[in-house]
Amino acid sequence: MSSSAADPIYEDLKCQILSGKLTSGQRLRQDQIAKQFGVSKIPVREALNRLEVDNLVVLERNKGAAVRRYSETEILQLLDIRIALECHALELAIPNMIGSDFRDMRDLLDDYAKCSEISEWSSMNRRFHHMLCEPSGNAQIISMIDDLQAKLGQYLRVLLSQAVGLERPMREHGAILDACERGDSSVAVEALRNHIETTQKEVAAFLRRAE
Amino acid sequence: MSSSAADPIYEDLKCQILSGKLTSGQRLRQDQIAKQFGVSKIPVREALNRLEVDNLVVLERNKGAAVRRYSETEILQLLDIRIALECHALELAIPNMIGSDFRDMRDLLDDYAKCSEISEWSSMNRRFHHMLCEPSGNAQIISMIDDLQAKLGQYLRVLLSQAVGLERPMREHGAILDACERGDSSVAVEALRNHIETTQKEVAAFLRRAE
DNA sequence: ATTGACAATTTCGTATACGATTTGCAAGGA
DNA sequence: TCCTTGCAAATCGTATACGAAATTGTCAAT
Questions:
Q1: If you write DSSP's letter for every residue of A68-127 in order, what string do you get?
Q2: B16 touches chain A (CB under 8 A)
Q3: Which of A197, B13, B86, B106 has most Cβ atoms within 10 angstroms of its Cβ?
Q4: Could you tell me which residues are beta bridge partners of residue B58?
Q5: What is the pLDDT of residues A135-185, one digit of tens each?
Q6: What are the strands of the beta sheet with A27-28, ordered from one edge?
């Protein structure tokens, strides 16, 4: 698929940016990164280009790359996009859901409830939302949703561990799944919309407090 | 912003793929393109990488790039994404619309009606849809919508010139705008959804016929 | 004639090298 | 003191060069 030398660099930088190790605005020197990974600048450039597409760095001609983490406004905007995409995908998915889908989601929610590792919550949350949309069969919308989740990951992770707890999301997840199982599309979609909107409000509050 | 040498190559190849000059599956040789544009392979690689992100070419390690135009299914999926994003953006936009927005959109529709150049229809259509979503203030969702429109451009352009004509889209555009002006969010969103869904059905029919 | 292996050629990926642009700093003038 | 001006160092973008992988063509063996 992609060039092998650029892959680990891309992954590593992405991880460092998303986890906050690299602060916003920090400049990324091609030569330095190249030396650090023991390669030349060319695969580094490739990695930086991909990061620019992800909106994680800004490239300026002859000036280099700088970390460009999302602003408060942009995070809320990304959540709006999630509302749009996930609700529509869920609407498309519900008619295609079969017994094993419901079983798998129930199983996941059970594991979710049992799991005490806060670090696991985030990935389980992502998996549940992914499973909700998967039966839509629209591979492109799903990959966009996954991308959004990855970008939002860091903020939501902090949020989950800090403030929210597990009860509310779990209850809402259960309600969404119930409506899906009843085939009640409009209730399920509305529940999902409220679920993400609540998250949106919590993120807004968190960011306001953290500012 | 981006590297200057890669830009024209990217634009040219993108145009050639979207306009159908390069057939699906056709291989793109780095050296050949480089010689053609009078540059080395490195900016060519950069252009190809960007095209891969756009899903317009497929890159395989040590095998090179091949044109990868969207399949019928994928076009319909992209239209589904447009439904999700545009409807949500419109919902966010309506409360923010002011007099000048309505005036601008009316003007555009007037020009649209007067315009006899089929080649202009596509770009006017895009502009109208863009204006509908713009007051949402969500820059990211708008840029995603614009990207989708660009990708779908070729197919919708053919469709407009071949089959559809101007009456139906114009009528629907007018109805959407009326509902916006009344501030009737749910009617406007539903009208927009139906508008895109009709396009979706027409694309499906067109592709079935063309196959 | 078909298949298999091996060699030659093509094509890709990346390191190195070099010109172009920007940046940082220091010296000079207002 | 503060602002320009010019030079040096750092950094970027791309051409060239070379090793690695894949494709193609050839030839012998079945």
A1: -PPPHHHHHHHHHHHHHHHHHHHHHHGGG--HHHHHHHHHHHHHHHH---HHHHHHHHHH
A2: no
A3: B86
A4: B66
A5: 999 999 999 999 899 888 877 777 766 666 778 889 999 999 999 999 999
A6: A27-28, A64-67, A57-60
Q: What is the pLDDT of residues B87-126, one digit of tens each?
A: 999 999 999 999 999 999 999 999 988 887 877 888 899 9
CA–C1' nearest nucleotide, residue B34: D15
For residue A5, what is the nearest residue in chain B, using CA coordinates? B61
pTM comes to 0.88
CA distance A95 to B135: 34
Q: Rounded distance, CA A15 to CA A9, Å?
A: 10
Residues of A in Cβ contact (< 8 Å) with B192: none
Structure tokens at A111: 């594991």
Which residue did the predictor score with more confidence, B151 or A30? A30
Mean pLDDT of A111-121: 83
Is the Cβ of A47 closer than 8 Å to some Cβ of chain B? Answer: no
Q: Pick from B51, B75, B134, B140 the residue to mutate for testing the A interface (most A CBs within 10 Å).
A: B140
Mark residues 22-81 of chain A whose C-beta is closer than 7 A to nucleic acid strand D. Answer: 27-31, 41-42, 45, 59, 61-65
Tokens of B64: 């090179």
CA dihedral sign, ordered B156, B159, B165, B169:
negative
Interfacial A residues in 107-146 facing B (CB < 8 Å): 138-141, 144
How close is the nearest chain B Cα to the Cα of A167, in Å? 28
Structure token pair of residue B115: 């315009």
Sign of CA dihedral A194, A200, A204, A209: positive
